User: Fold HAD-IIA family hydrolase from Alicyclobacillus mengziensis.
Amino acid sequence: MTHKDVDWKLGLIDLDGTLYRGGRPIPGSAEFVVRLRERGIQPVFFTNNATRTPIAVVQHLERMGVEAFPHEVVTSAQASASRIGPSAADGYVLYIGEAGIHEALREEGHQPLSVRHPKVRERLNRVKAAVLGLDSQVNYAELALFCQKTAELGAFILTNADVQLPAEEGFLPGNGAIGAFVETASRVRPYVAGKPNPDFAGYALSRFGICREDAFVVGDNPETDIRCGRLFGLYSILVETGVAEAARRAANGELDDEPDEVVGSVGDLF
Ligand SMILES: [Mg+2]
Assistant:
C-alpha cells in the first residue's frame, strides 16, 4: 500500500524541511498543495514553530509560492493555549514568546502577560498558568522571573521541545534548550504541547472534525513528525528534504519510529 491507495480527507503537513528550507521553497511544494486541493484533501500546515501567528505563516508560505489560509495553520502555540483550562479565566497566563503565543492565548480567551510587560511584577500574583515558547530576545531577568513563577505554580507548558533550529551557520538553540534551562532551575517538568505529542495531532484533527483514519502526516523529522503521527495512529510519510541524516537512518530502520512510507520530497506525493 502507498499513500495513493487511500481517499484521504486531510493531510497534516510539516513546514520547515518539508515545504521549504528557511527562505527557499522545496521544488514541487506549491504544486503538491495544489494537487491536494484538487483531490479534495484539506491541507493543514502543522508546525511546532510557535513564534509566528497564522497570518504570518500564511505570508511566509505565500513568499514560497504556496497558497494557504490562516484557518489552515495549526501551531504548537495554539495547542498550548488550548491546553490551559478555564481556571485561568480570571487571571493571567504568563508567557515567554513572540506574537504567535500572544495571539493564540487571546484567541482562546486567556489574558496573556508577557514577562516583558512593564506591570508584570504587580500582576504576578494573578498568574494562573505559564507558557514558554521561543523568544530570540529573552534575557536572564525574564527567565529568572519565569522560573520563579513556574516553581510556585508547579507546572508550565513548553510549546515545543525542538533542541536545535537549522540556520545559515549550522544551528541555533531551539525552544527545547530554553525549556531545559527552566526545567533545571524550577525543578518542574513541562507539558510539551508540540510534536511528537500525539495530542497535538488530535487537536489539529478536532479543529476540522476529521478522524485519524482519514488523515496522514508528512514531515522531514522522524523524532517529531513521524513519532507524532505513529503515536496518534496516522499514516506517516517521511520526506528526505530536511533533517537528511535522521531521514536516512529511519529509512535504514535504525530509528524506533519508522514511517509508513519514505519519499524524496513532497513533489513525489500524489
Ligand atoms: Mg520540519
Observations:
- The radius of gyration is 19 Å.
- The chain has two domains: 3-48+195-268, 77-192.
- The chain has ten helices and 15 strands.
- The domain at 3-48+195-268 is CATH 3.40.50.1000 (Rossmann fold).
